[in-house]
């Protein structure tokens, strides 16, 4: 195995950073799927021949598979209903591994998702993401996206008007300037 040159190592780091930004933007857009979501931008994050799939019994049944950019955008567009499917949604990615070589790359993440639905129900969900990327016209895009559920469970509520429990501190005001 030959040693990588300094330029190859730099390119690998730049590719990893670009892929990280791509995934962050994808999650940000998925966190705010509503009438204002720029669906053309969301679609442009994927290759024209991309695949998006739920894996395993729970996600395979819930999400199925979608082939092609237009099908993926249509699937995600369904979440923008009136009212939108999510009243609140936040994705957190961790345990990241990204490997890039030339115009191909792969990534794996653990994802935690906190959601409150339009119905008022809230869920905590964890999943494994396995993603293949392809560089097209000098930018990275998602080529194959697979998500497999690890657990999902209901929770009472994410945010309440109750004061935060803080040892030894009694808040008189929520105004941070006083």
Question: What descriptors fit this protein?
Answer:
single chain; alpha+beta; 178 residues; 4 helices; globular; six-stranded mixed β-sheet; Nuclear Transport Factor 2, Chain: A; 42% strand
Gist of the model:
It is built from 4 helices and 6 strands, in the order ααβαβαββββ. With 178 residues, it is of the alpha+beta class. It has one domain: Nuclear Transport Factor 2, Chain: A.
Describe the protein in words.
It contains 4 helices and 6 strands. The chain has 178 residues and is an alpha+beta fold. The protein has a single domain (6-155), classed as Nuclear Transport Factor 2, Chain: A (Roll), CATH 3.10.450. The chain has a 6-stranded mixed β-sheet with strand order 2-1-6-5-4-3.
**Which CATH architecture would you pick?**
Roll
Number of helices: 4
Number of beta-strand segments: 6
Largest beta-sheet characterization: 6 strands, mixed
User: Helix amount, in percent?
Assistant: 25-40%
Domains counted in the coordinates: how many?
1
The span between the termini is 62 Å
State the CATH class. Alpha Beta
Look at the helices and sheets and give the structural class: alpha+beta
- Sketch the topology as an H/E string, one letter per element: HHEHEHEEEE
- Percent of residues in β-strands: 35-45%
Output mean pLDDT.
Answer: 92
Unreliable residue stretches: none
CATH fold group = Nuclear Transport Factor 2, Chain: A
């Amino acid at each position: 195995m030959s040693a990588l040159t300094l330029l190859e190592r730099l390119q690998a780091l730049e590719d990893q950073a670009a892929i990280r930004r791509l995934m962050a933007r994808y999650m940000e857009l998925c966190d705010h799927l509503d009438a204002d979501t720029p669906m053309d931008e969301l679609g442009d994050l994927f290759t024209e021949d991309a695949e998006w799939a739920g894996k395993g019994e729970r996600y395979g049944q819930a999400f199925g598979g979608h082939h092609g950019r237009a099908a993926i955008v249509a699937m995600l567009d369904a979440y923008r209903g009136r009212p939108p499917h999510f009243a609140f949604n936040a994705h957190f990615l961790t345990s990241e591994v990204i490997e890039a070589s030339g115009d191909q790359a792969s990534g794996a993440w653990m994802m935690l998702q906190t959601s409150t639905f339009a119905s008022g129900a809230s869920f905590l969900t964890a999943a494994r993401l396995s993603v293949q990327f392809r560089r097209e016209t000098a930018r990275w895009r998602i080529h194959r996206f697979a998500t497999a559920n690890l657990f999902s469970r209901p929770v009472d509520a994410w945010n309440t008007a109750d004061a935060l429990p803080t040892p030894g501190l009694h808040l008189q005001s929520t105004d941070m300037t006083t």
